[in-house]
Amino acid sequence: MADLPIRFGIIGCAEIARKVSRAIQLAPNATVYAVASRNVDKAANFAKANGFPPHTKIYGSYESLLDDPDVDAVYLPLPTSLHLKWAVLTAQKKKHILTEKPVALNVAEFDQILKACEENGVQIMDGTMWVHHPRTHKMKEFLNDKERFGQLKTVNSCFTFFADPDFLKNDIRVKPDLDALGALGDAGWYGIRSILWAADYELPKTVTAIRHPVLNEAGTSGTLHLTDFIIPYQEHEASYTTSTKPGFDELVTGWSQLPSEHTVTVDLPQEVCMVREFASLVRNIKKKGTQPDKKWPTISRKTQLVLDAVKASIDKGFQPVEIVS
To answer: Topology of 129-220 in CATH?
Structure first.
């Protein structure tokens, strides 16, 4: 008999939950089992609008979902200020946690969440999707190639998006009273994670927030470039460009070594790869008695540490802030 899929409960009906719930349904080893909102009608409407299976349980409180013994794992798309309370309660209920980022308002809160997870033997992973895309692994192979790339010297990571007037007025990311980290915690998390990823998650010694971006090339022998690292232009393929020891032709009218484009085709979107990886970890804990994988919370904590330092730099007038691990 095939193993049953990991049964997810979703706490909260945020917009991002539409994308991740679709990913849960597409993942071969996961299924949407329950959804909760503080308003039962909202939860029911969310389930219907997103095509949840007819057997999906609908709850009018978060606590009710956490008390369901058949829920294996919980996806938390709640505002960051609510993560500490609900992540800890989720862990105490022995439910594995897939949480939106940032994981917490600061690393002190993060450590409380991690402590609860470790004490209760549950897996935690943050919802940074792009690191799970197969393209990311291919790019890492290029960065690790000393002949083609050389030594990493600088990384420029930029994530921008158009925000309409309604977003700038009403979105939670521009309301410090609702989400204290705002756009820094949401968009900034990606840039921080990408820099840490490129540096094999070695923490920087200091961090300085700046008012204006400084753009640089990266690598002593080559460059890696892409513009869609967070959300690929297309679900089933993603590209990146590399160049190694580029130069000009004799008359300097063109390049003697053109950059090469690499396309990675995939069967499943990156968010499904994320859910599949998380569900596999949960299955190993349930079926084989393995310990929760420390890789993902370790990476999340380092991202949180740098995020804290950037926030502190802003608060101190853009002064350098030392990273304290």
So the answer is: Dihydrodipicolinate Reductase; domain 2 (3.30.360)
* Tokens 């994988």 belong to residue: 293
Q: List pLDDT tens digits, range 38-53.
A: 999 999 999 999 999 9
End-to-end CA distance of the chain: give it in Å, rounded.
46
CB 293 within 8 A of CB 278: no
CA distance 77 to 292: 21
Q: Just give the CATH number of 6-127.
A: 3.40.50.720
Distance CA 132, CA 199 (A): 17
Domain boundaries, the chain: 6-127, 129-220
The full 3-state SS of 162-208, as one line of letters, equals CCCHHHHHHCHHHCCCCCCCHHHHHHHHHHHHHHHHHCCCCCCCEEC
Structure tokens at 110: 């993060």
- Compute the distance between CA of residue 309 and CA of residue 325 in angstroms, rounded to an integer: 11
Please, which residues have CB within 8 angstroms of residue 182's CB and are 6 or more apart in sequence?
173, 174, 175, 176
* 279-295 per-residue burial string, b: 16 or more CB within 10 A, e: under 16: bbbbbebeeeeeebbee
Q: In what order do the strands lie in the sheet with 73-76?
A: 57-59, 30-36, 6-11, 73-76, 96-99, 124-126
Name the helix (H) or strand (E) containing 321: strand 321-322
Cβ atoms within 10 A of the Cβ of 247, count? Answer: 9
CA distances from 188 to 175, 254, 303 (A): 16, 36, 10
**pLDDT at position 153 over 80:** yes
Q: How far apart are CA 99 and CA 77, in angstroms?
A: 6
273-306 residue pLDDT tens: 999 999 999 999 999 999 999 999 999 999 999 9
Place of tokens 């599949």: 276
